[in-house]
Amino acid sequence: MSDEEDLVVRLDLDDEVESAVFRESSEDALEWTLNVAIGLIVAGSLLGLWFGILLFAADPQDVLENPLFADENTATVNGQLLSALDVENNTGGDPVEGVRIILLNMDDEPTSHSAFTDRDGRFSMENVPQDSFILKISEEGHRVVRTTFIPGDQAVLSLTLTPGDGEPIEDDLRKDTHLESAVLLASIVASLTIVSALFGFVGATEARRGKRYRRTQYLCGLALFSRGGIFIGPLLILVGMGMLSATKRHFEDADGNQ
Q: Which of 137, 155, 219, 242 is the most exposed place for a label (fewest CB within 10 A)?
C-alpha cells in the first residue's frame, strides 16, 4: 500500500513540474509578444511624429506636392501668342507663327514639354503634370516672356510677344492659388499627424501597464492617422495591434472583454 502512495505522489509532482514549465513558457511567449507589439506601435508612432515635424518644417508648396496631397492627373496646356499692340502705329494684336514655347521646372531647367505656335498663334502641350511650371518664350528681337503657372488652372494662356531687348516680362498666374490657405491646411495636417502619433505613445504605455485592453486598442487605432511614411507607420501600428489581441489575457480587464 505504501508503494502505491509513493507512486501517486511522484506522478503528482511530475504533473506539477510540467504544468509549471508550461506556465513559464506561456508567460515568456506572452511577454515576448507584448514587447514586440509595443515596439511596433512605438516605431510606427515615431515615424508619424517625424512625418508631422517634416510637414511643419517644409515649404507649403512642397507639402502640397507630397504624394499624400499630389494630384496625379495631367492637363493639356493651350495658349495663343499675339504680337504686342502699338497704339501709335495702330498695329499689333496679330497671331505670331513659328515661335517655340518651352516649359521649365521651378529650378529653371528645361523639361520635355515644348511646342511651336501655328498660323493662328495657337499652341498645345498634352499630358503636362499639374505642378508649377515656367513657360518661356525667347524669340530674337523680342523681350523674353516668363510666365509661371499650373497646368489646368487656365483654359487658355494669352501671351504677348513684345519687340525690344529690355528686361524679361515675368508674370505669375499662381497668385490665385491662396497660399495662406495652403499654409493653414499644411499646419492643420501637421498638427493632426503629431497628435495622432502621440496617441500611439500613450497606447504603448497603456499596453505596458496592462490595465485596459479596449482603451489601449482605441488609442493605437487613433495613432493610425499619423501616416508615418505614408503607409509604413500605420502598417507597423496595425501589426502591433494585432499582436496585442493575442496578449489580451495580459490585461486586468481581460475577463470583461471576453
A: 155
Domain count, the chain: 1
Structural domain contains residue 118: yes
* 241: in domain: no
CATH number of the structural domain spanning residue 81: 2.60.40.4130
Range of the domain at 91: 74-176
Per-residue pLDDT of 102-149, as tens digits, reads 999 999 999 999 999 999 999 999 999 988 999 999 999 999 999 999
Rg of the chain on CA atoms, in Å: 33
